[in-house]
Amino acid sequence: MVREALLKVLEARPDEPVAFLAGYFEKLVLSSPEAGDGGGDHHGQHQQRLVRALWYVHLAHHSHRTAFNNNISMAYECLSAGGRRKKPGVNGKIYSELLKRICRDGEVPEEIISPLLRKITCRDHEAVPFDIFRYGVLTCFVLLEFLAKADTLYDVLDDSSGVADKRVCLAVLGTLEEALQASNFSVPVRYLEVGSKLGPDCLALAMDRALVDRKVSASMNRGEFLRRATALFITKVKPVD
Amino acid sequence: MGTMGHEPVPCTIKSAVTLQVGDVRRELGRPGVVVIDVAFPQPIDLQEMVFKNYYAAFLTMRVQRRRSLNRGTEGPLQWVTCLQDYCLMPNPHTEDCSQDYVCLSRDQMFCDVDHVATMRLILRQPSPVWFNFSIEELRFYAQGQKIPQKGFPSWLSHPSPQEQPANLHEELPNPDKVSSEVQKMWVLTEMLQASQTAARIGRFDVDGCYDINLLSYT
Lengths: 241, 218
Fold this sequence. Notes:
The complex is a heterodimer of chains A (241) and B (218).
Chain A (H helix, E strand, L loop, with lengths): L1 H11 L4 H14 L11 H18 L5 H16 L11 H14 L4 H11 L9 H28 L6 E2 H15 L6 H11 L2 H11 L8 E2 L1 H14 L6
Chain B lengths: L11 E2 L3 E3 L13 E12 L1 E9 L3 E11 L5 E14 L13 E5 L10 E9 L9 E9 L32 H20 L24
Antiparallel strand pairs in B: 1-3, 2-3, 3-8, 4-7, 4-9, 5-6, 5-8
């Protein structure tokens, strides 16, 4: 048990290893089967498994790819264990619930979550293969980070005045959209192209062009900016089929 | 390679014939020579050929071409050797260059390779170490077929930093910061696209409806 805990520390490399370990053991005690007093009924067990799976997927950041993958497979096992049958697998219902919980925990606004979830969740009765499970969870986490970046971007764009100019916002998002659109070059060339498109010079030009008539114009609030930015992201998410 | 971006010439590559003394099944010796014939439906002016070596050590190339006579009339077909024991593997017993991609252009040939109708590639491998040998992914490119290089994409030749417009608006957000955030957002999206899976649930329905042909009575 201690070895496993240390392994998790090494994998996740938290900033505060002691606090991480404390949290780890606390969670381990709280979510162990014996501890679940009120968890005798089916619903309680279900919730407990969900909480445990959530905890697993949060252990490591998704950029630590190996650790993250390990944790996801732990979560997958945890969700598929239990139940009456021997190998029930993960069904669409609990998978969708997990994804929703991840997004809600990240305080993603509802109107941003729902188009994403529509793409990556499965129907309640469907068996979810591990690859799809992994992709779904990863997508949620990447979206959370994407949102955080978009939020910071808005802070830059509004110049600490609280509201950003709509034209500038649209210009920046338009440039990003252009860069995301698959050009017909192979990978290294495309990266160069995007690097040039998203460089400070090009962006400055785009923003400058947007502001060409120096009139005061409508502003775009943070919510709308985030919604438009995530829409770009979500179009690139591969839907489950 | 200069061959990117245009189409190889259509041709018929016949299967390789191994030359061996005695019965192939009974003799223990390995064949040392492989012959591959290539036929072109239309005679071509060969510019270059590209292939992937597979343990062949030397290449001899003979072409059957039609010599045009002085007054523009076509002469008889004749065979000429345009490459003799071209070294593909510096040391036939070792792996070096054994699976390299090779590009031979017309400058490397002994003679003109115009109006080529048929080609015979003779591969030799003196070393008995290799069980068999050949060349793969054989492609021919004709002369004059090269598409001129298109101009540089605009993003490659976009204004360099010193040409940066100086008259930017005062109230413009800091482009460096904007750029850094936007690039991070792009990376995240790109990373997600790179980790897509091929796995599928295997749904048969399209927008909630089933194709009637998929239903069966069993």
